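Bench notes, afternoon.
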Amino acid sequence: MLRREDLVSTTRRIGEQVAALWADEVDTAGRFPSETIDELRTSGVLGAMVPTHWGGAGASVEDMSAAVSALAEHCASSALVLAMHQIQVACLADHGTDAARGRLFPRLVSGEMLIANANSEVGLGGERRTSLCALEQTAGGFLIDKQASTVSYGEYADAIFATARREPGSPAHDQVMAICLSPAMQLTPTGEWNTLGLRGTCSRPGHLVAELDADLIIG
């Protein structure tokens, strides 16, 4: 189990021994840094911000910022994946339901879960504090159908946190966060991603469709 005091040194070692070996290829080929992310999984770094009473290392934002910086010295794409993943972990820790934490935290601690985000949306002009899509109630829970302008490494993630309006009649700024989990989600790429220096995040636009229950909504 990863200890909080070992987070930065562990991440620095991964940067030096793994990320640095593949960084040029990751950016040149625009491919996902799978070797580095696999090491972050097995080392416990992906679950480092999970609170200790849920089995995690209880790392703070400051701890994780230092770890991300250490990794960024060797591979910018790997560091950005780690940063965006941990933003979602922090959202879950601070605002998620106990039921959602109980379902996701054990998988994060064991390294089974990489969380992506789909906060942008086609047609919003970059205004992420509003949404066009809305959660629609179904017989079994809720449905989200979103045309995202980018989905951070979504094709490689085990979960996607996506913003949406609370319900079809809600105003654009009345947002919730939908926790979309495999296999109840489908992401279909709708474009390409070739951003200088961050090609390896593989954050292509995509059409996200997912079913979820009320416990997986961050209000």
